[in-house]
Automatic annotation (TrEMBL):
Protein species of origin: Kribbella aluminosa
Source species taxonomy: Bacteria, Bacillati, Actinomycetota, Actinomycetes, Propionibacteriales
Protein name listed in UniProt: Undecaprenyl diphosphate synthase
The organism's place on the tree of life at top rank: Bacteria
InterPro entries per record: UPP_synth-like_sf (IPR036424)
Gene3D superfamilies on file: Decaprenyl diphosphate synthase-like (3.40.1180.10)
Amino acid sequence: MPEELVPRQVAIVMGGNGRWAKQRGMVRTEGHWAGKAPLLDVI
């Protein structure tokens, strides 16, 4: 890929973790913590 086409910044939007937790009877923040492991895999 030509260097000028390589992005200088990339954004990761973590969405749905609150809903994921709610569906499992957890509080919203537990969903945010559960999203940490997949995020670390990506980065």
